[in-house]
Amino acid sequence: MVERYYIKGGTPLKGEVLIGGAKNSVLKLMAAAILAKGESKIYNVPDLTDVEIMLNVIAQLGCKTSYDKKEKSLTIDATNITNVTASYELVSKMRASFIILGALVSRCKEARVALPGGCAIGERRVDFHIRGLEALGAKIKIENGYVHAKTNKLVGSDVYLDIPSVGATENIMLASVLAEGSTKIQNAAQEPEIVDLANFLNTMGADVNGAGTSEIIINGVKPTDLHPIEYTTIPDRIEAGTFMTAIIATKGKGIIKNIYPAHLTFFTDKLLKMGANIKLLDPTSMEVSCKNRLNSINFVTQPYPGFPTDLQSMAMTLLTTANGVGIITESLYENRFMQVPDLNRMGADIHQDRNHAIIKGVKKLSGATLTASDLRAGASLVVAALMAEGNSIVEKLHHIDRGYENFENKIRLLGGKIERKNEDFQTNLTEGTHNESYL
Question: Is 31:99 a contact under the CB 8 Å cutoff?
């Protein structure tokens, strides 16, 4: 059995959409929760397959976990850790689970974590993670697909990152919390999720300073200084950007609620330059709309506060029908244009040259059968199908489920014509002829 979206395009999205908790934050907060003995509770947790995987990783260590779907909260009781191995079967499914390495080394002085998996968007090495832990005094061996870290004592150190890697910054932060003395991370990642992790750790009793800047200083504390807490995750800026794109792409008008507008400044600025209308309604909501054809502009993905690579595919979808020619330069990952062949099959005019994509705007896209190749590319194809003329099918929804909770339900609440169907793999799905009664 396979699951597919059936989408009828051409309907402007209108109404309100409530943004959930940040996937890229909550996964790291879950890892941080194992640093303190006792039961911590995290709120505003989206119901995602990635969250489920991370819960399984933590449970594998001996922690007691539970998730309340109605309350959107989870509890982690890290009183006892009986196992320091995070298995390949789990870590290979989701790269973010590799963040458990720093927390385990910090709490238990030993960790054995499988090398990570996740979306195949390009090379994302763990060298920076390992060098950071080694600088703190951990002895690292890589064997049989596992990173084995062990130490008698972690000692604070100066760590310089060649690139501002989010994962490496987080792993070093977690490892440094209980280290002896101070650790300085230079050229640190500055994403809002880094700030959220620092706030979580400080609420727990840690001493982390400078998060959100390029230099983070962690003054080590004693294990007895840490305590379990209750904490609310920040909103998901990438989900917010996705729905902003969907409303604008379909020439609709909608209100995006439960957001931190400051986290979306760069994206908002780009949308305004293209001709979209965006108005801040209150500190946590904004109205977005678009009536006329957008104008093409150029995008270059950069570490935060630059344009986010996770919204690059959304920008490309908007450019497909914009007036003129736009160029997207992907400076972070070499395989993050995997949506291009599907967009071209819908009638887009996109030429790819290594890490550059040249998009010449066409008047309209046409429905087609599409395949989600990774999380963000998959979501962008859904948006493309919503703005296209005619009917589309989107396959391999497991990628989208990793990062979007109730995606189709939220789209339907905005008036989008989308249905999810679980069907036999052999079902004949001739393009453009599926039953429109679904829609």
Answer: yes
